[in-house]
Design brief:
Layout: E1 44-48, H1 53-64, E2 68-73, H2 77-89, E3 94-98, H3 104-118, E4 123-126, H4 142-163, E5 172-176, H5 189-209, E6 215-221, H6 228-232, H7 235-239, H8 254-264, E7 275-278
Parallel strand pairs: 1-2, 1-4, 2-3, 4-5, 5-6, 6-7
Helix pairs in contact: 1-2, 1-8, 3-4, 4-5
């Protein structure tokens, strides 16, 4: 735990949505540390936002646990290719699908591709997100508010609706919420609002799908060192990112991977409707 980087970090900024190779320090996705033990052997998973950050860490972990993965991403082609190579190094199949999940038709295409190329869907990880920071509500345009909801919650609905008919009993849906659902950062008003919606969506979904034997859970990360940070937050916030939690540092993507594995693992068959906090010691209510 003490080996992970701590702030202050160097001043840095990137255009949205950001890329991994321009970050300093580089995030740790478990490339050299995550060891699998066959917990997801033969499973088929969709991971949105799987090109970088939390999504890349989950893809690496799932592959090393024995799963094939479809990696959905917007347009970060180099990051996506790097993640694909890491999955294939683990001896598993990786399928890349680029495109904008705002569109219901594209979400349906993702699911159709997984069914055709992976042979089914056992795990759906709704992880992709849009965030932008604004100091005043007057700065948030209609377009920005609607974009945040379309990417963060509408797409989650579209993907889940398309995937459920292909999921068998024992399947798992995992949605990335945020500590912002319970402790909203005011400069992330739109993003935080969608994360609250995700937590509520997950709780209702778990009840709706229980009769089908499909579980639904959420992960609520605290400050995690991903390309979203230098591309969406003010430079001063980036320099001190993670300092506000008890561990006094941001989490690395690899530190969330085991939570996503646990929630997908068939051994977690009684865990549904839960939100798992991964927040560096900061409680969520």
């Amino acid at each position: 735990m003490e080996n992970f980087p701590r702030p202050p970090f160097k001043r840095q900024t990137q255009p949205m949505p950001g890329t991994t190779d321009r970050m300093d320090p580089l995030p740790d996705h478990g490339e050299n540390s995550y060891k699998g033990s066959g917990r997801l052997q033969g499973k088929k998973a969709i991971i949105t936002g799987g090109d970088s950050g939390i999504g890349r860490a989950v893809a690496i972990a799932y592959a090393r646990e024995g799963a094939d993965v479809l990696i959905s991403y917007l347009n970060e082609h180099e990051d996506a290719k790097s993640t694909k190579a890491l999955v294939e190094e683990a001896g598993r199949k990786a399928v890349l699908v680029a495109g904008d999940i705002q569109a219901s038709a594209h979400c349906e295409k993702i699911v159709e591709t997984a069914v055709n190329e992976l042979g089914g869907i056992d795990i759906l990880v709704n992880n992709a997100a849009h965030q932008a920071s604004f100091p005043d509500i007057a700065d948030i345009t209609d377009e920005e508010w609607e974009l945040t909801f379309r990417v963060n919650i509408h797409a989650m609905f579209y993907l889940t609706r398309a995937a459920v008919p292909h999921m068998k009993p024992g399947s798992s849906i995992i949605n990335t919420a945020s500590i912002n659902a319970d402790a909203p950062n005011p400069i992330l008003l739109a993003y935080a609002t969608t994360k609250g919606a995700i937590q509520n969506f997950t709780a209702g979904l778990a009840q709706m799908l229980a009769d089908k034997g499909i579980r639904a859970n959420a992960v609520a990360p605290g400050p995690i060192w991903t390309p979203l940070i230098p591309s969406t937050l003010p430079e001063d916030s980036v320099m001190n990112f993670g300092k506000q939690v008890p561990m006094k540092r941001p989490g690395q993507p690899v530190e969330l991977a085991s939570t996503y594995v646990m929630l997908a693992d068939p051994l977690s068959s009684y865990v549904s409707g839960a939100t798992i906090a991964v927040t560096g010691g900061k409680p969520i209510l």
